[in-house]
Amino acid sequence: MRPLIELQNITKQFPGVLALDKVSFTLERGEIHALCGENGAGKSTLIKVMTGAHEMDKGEYIFDGDSVHFKSTHEGINRGVSCVYQELSIVPEQDVAKNLFIGNLPMKGSIIDYKKLYSESKKILNELGMDVSPKSLAGDLSVGQQQMIEIGRALTRNARCIIMDEPTSSLSESETDTLLKIIFMLKKKDIAIVYISHKLDEVMHLSDRITVIRDGQNIVTVNKNEITEEELIANMIGRNLENMYNKKEVTPGKSVLEVNNLSSKDLFNNISFSVRAGEIVGFFGLVGAGRSEIMRAIFGADKYNSGEVIMNSNKLRKGSPSKSIKAGIGFCTEDRKKEGLMLQLSILMNMTIVKLKELTFLGVIKKSKQQEITNHYIDSIRIKTPSANQKTGNLSGGNQQKVVLAKWLMMNPDLLIIDEPTRGIDIGAKAEIYTLLGELAKQGMAIIVVSSEIEEVMGLSDKVITIHEGDKTAEFNMKDDPSREQILTAALGAENI
Amino acid sequence: MIAKLDKFKSTPVVRFFRENNSIYILILVIIAACISASPKFTRPANIINLTQSIGTYGILAIGLTFIFLVGGIDLSLAYQVALDGTLFVLMCNSIGFFPALLITLVLGCCIGYMNGTIVTRLKIPSLIGTLAVMTSLKGLVLILNNDSSGRAVEATLFGERLSHFYNIKLFGFLTPSHIICIIFLVALGMFLKYKRDGINMYVVGGNPEAGLFSGINNDRLTRMAFTIGGFCASFCSILVVMRMNTSTYNMGDNLDIIAICSVVVGGVKMQGGKGNMAMCIMGVATIQIINNVMTKLGMRTAMQALITGIVVILVLILDKITSNIKANNA
């Protein structure tokens, strides 16, 4: 039997960029095919050609034996090509059922068939193993559940091929497990899956075949068991990556931050820990365990009920980020697009916005000084950009994260809190961020890294603290070489650690 | 204790209030306050008068609700009413009632469609686009209402027949504005609930990206919403003209503010994706009841405007608080 999708020598040109250069790709029926490559390698363009969001310039697209040329995603959907996008496309004020059947509502004549809508939705929710009423509002669901709705949507359209673009980037470990199970279930139903992820362990676990593209070209397509993770990485970045974490030996200095019995109703209880200069402390736990909430409370973005935060032996006032910044805390938030960056503005503006006061003379901004300081940071933390005036929205995820970092580094903080430092960032940029954090620690900065990726926490930190449902369950010194399982069990709240 | 509370929470009446906007509680409170504040409030004549104005302004607010639903705004609605009304009067006096009615309604749709086109095809944000249209329409209305020496004149309808028609009472209380408004509410409410285009409008306002990738034609639905807005404006204008028996150059003044306040108070989300006919009419009723009772109490117009503004802010605060409570309970 012919493969479900055959792409032959696809070429796609954007103004100034050759995004795809004679790329070929085949997708067998019912296979899970991982698509790997760094950001900007052309993965997104390739899947957009597959779904019909982009038209190809040259090449041939054969779907189920027919040569096709999709002019819109709608045409793609009608043939059975559905995509679950990285950015969720949920309509929050509508109920689950309507979200499932968006653009495809069951009709009775010219009127919507509500009975069928809810019964069909129920069926699909059952299939996905979701314990959610089809009538509940989609906006009230967790991010993981919303992701499932997107997959459910593909099912309502009788998809024969589902493309998943970074589906686990915002899921917790248990939600990820559920998702992986569902993917296997889809495979059994003879639905082919194109799976895009930066998380290579998932790719290795899940896929039947792996295709690597780099700089808009095919590099290799192999069966999973013919390649190791290291070879995969080497293929993606085109060179060997020795030690991702590149940790340097640092002797911790004096205590910078002391947190004593910090509690906030319903969010976390009795959290105590300390961070010393030059130390990297990793906070690990499931999404929703309360990690980010603790950090927000320390920083003063949220209030807490009891306990104290002591920064450089001074007690911090609660609920005042500006006081915390003055006391020397920098905070890179989890969602850089929402809370950390103004995507419409230039790198220069984004970096210097917190420092404008110091850059003014008689209330007028000293442009040259602003330019100089921005360029200094662009060089020192290696942001890839043609100029300081580039719009931040045009940068890749890794470079955006660096801009956020630079913004805080300018404040010369004694303590840097960084929440999910590498979410949605490709592997090369990840390594650079890790190196950068290592260098900062070496210079004597205290760093707290919050992450849901266990490798990251283990590789980076000197000390790992696990949080489960608002409680601190364990503290590991990485010198004692705790195992992955030990940390995971502690984070899952299991007893007998 | 908690189990009892949960049981209380799940009783149908309480659930209705929890799941809907706080406006329903508010409106009961306001009505109670109005009855005690002014004995004139409950007189049948006043009730009919009040509900008539709810009907008239309600139709305009219904149009605006659709535009809000798809995430747009139409600042020109008020002057569409003025222009439609003026032309209606002029045409009534020359070509007769029914042709005038038909042409006015078609014209309303055309202006609405034009606004929709400006927003979708020219990609001008609706706030700016309709602001420009509003200014032009305002000018046009002034030109139409001027005589040769530039003095503002009022076109008066022929005879008293139309104002008489406005006050016809079916079963002793149902007037044309009641009936038309109810027809609009029911028909468009059904449209939003049972027609594909209706539900898709929520998608356009709630998450246009999702619509795009699901094969929904966002632009077509946006134009449709603006067209419905224009159509409602023309109907509203005819009712306003009938009531006053004349059109004036300033008949659109404040209408936009009234419509926007009403709809927002009702709980329709300006950013799009949330709202329905019940919310819309409840909002209109709240604002009209307050205005009515203030007039009955003999308050000055300036004072009335001040109080209306404060009420709008209070409602929004109340809504914020209740939605926070809901979020915490979820």
Task: Give an overview in words.
In chain A, 33% of the residues lie in helices and 26% in strands. By secondary structure, chain A is an alpha/beta fold. The model of chain A has no long low-confidence stretch (mean pLDDT 84). Chain A has 17 helices and 24 strands. Chain B has helices spanning 2-9, 12-19, 23-37, 44-69, 77-95, 97-120, 126-145, 161-166, 176-194, 196-206, 208-213, 218-244, 255-266, 277-296, 301-329, and strands spanning 155-156, 246-247. Chain B starts with a helix and ends with a helix. In chain B, helix 4 (44-69) crosses helix 13. Chain B has a single domain, classed as Orthogonal Bundle (ABC transporter involved in vitamin B12 uptake, BtuC). The longest helix of chain B is centred in the last third of the chain and has 29 residues, at 301-329. Chain B is globular, with a radius of gyration of 21 Å. The chains are: A alpha/beta (497), B mainly alpha (330). At the A-B interface, helix 2 and strand 8 of A face helix 10 and helix 11 of B.
> C-alpha Rg of chain A, in Å?
24 Å
Which stretches of chain B are low in confidence, meaning pLDDT under 50 for 5 or more residues running? none
CATH fold-type name of chain B: ABC transporter involved in vitamin B12 uptake, BtuC
Strand fraction band of chain A?
25-35%
Concise overview:
Chain A has 497 residues and is an alpha/beta fold.
Question: What is the element layout, followed by pairings?
Answer:
The complex is a heterodimer of chains A (497) and B (330).
Chain A: E1 5-14, E2 17-27, E3 32-36, H1 43-51, E4 58-63, E5 66-67, H2 73-79, E6 81-84, H3 96-100, E7 107-108, E8 111-112, H4 114-127, H5 143-156, E9 161-165, H6 173-188, E10 192-196, H7 200-206, E11 209-214, E12 217-223, H8 229-237, E13 255-264, E14 268-276, E15 280-284, H9 291-299, E16 306-311, E17 314-315, H10 321-327, E18 329-332, H11 336-340, H12 347-352, E19 360-361, E20 364-365, H13 367-380, H14 397-409, E21 415-419, H15 427-442, E22 446-451, H16 454-460, E23 463-468, E24 471-477, H17 484-491
Parallel strand pairs in A: 3-10, 3-11, 6-9, 9-10, 15-22, 15-23, 18-21, 21-22
Antiparallel strand pairs in A: 1-2, 1-4, 4-5, 7-8, 11-12, 13-14, 13-16, 16-17, 19-20, 23-24
Chain B: H1 2-9, H2 12-19, H3 23-37, H4 44-69, H5 77-95, H6 97-120, H7 126-145, E1 155-156, H8 161-166, H9 176-194, H10 196-206, H11 208-213, H12 218-244, E2 246-247, H13 255-266, H14 277-296, H15 301-329
Antiparallel strand pairs in B: 1-2
Helix pairs in contact in B: 3-14, 4-9, 4-12, 4-13, 4-14, 5-6, 5-7, 5-12, 6-7, 6-12, 9-10, 10-12, 13-14, 13-15, 14-15
